[in-house]
Amino acid sequence: MEARKAKRARRRGKPGTLEEARALLWRALERAGELLEVEDPAHALKAVHAVSQGAAAYARIVEVGELEARIAALEGQGGEDEDPAPAGPRLRRGAA
What we know:
single chain
């Protein structure tokens, strides 16, 4: 059983990064765009479908990358200026 898990893990390899996926998808979009010019209408129609699907996936990847960058920027500026345990409103004696 363990040997099977190890073999499966080796086959999968390391997961790719978001940037690698973005670059790969862009190359695929360029190739699909070239196929739009072929003479065969059925082939061109498949290329149109590939471009539309690839463009949607590319937009999502770019959006995720931008959101990750924004989160990283916010996390980088947050911790230095703030008090680690901000105090709430102070109540006078007898107010509670």
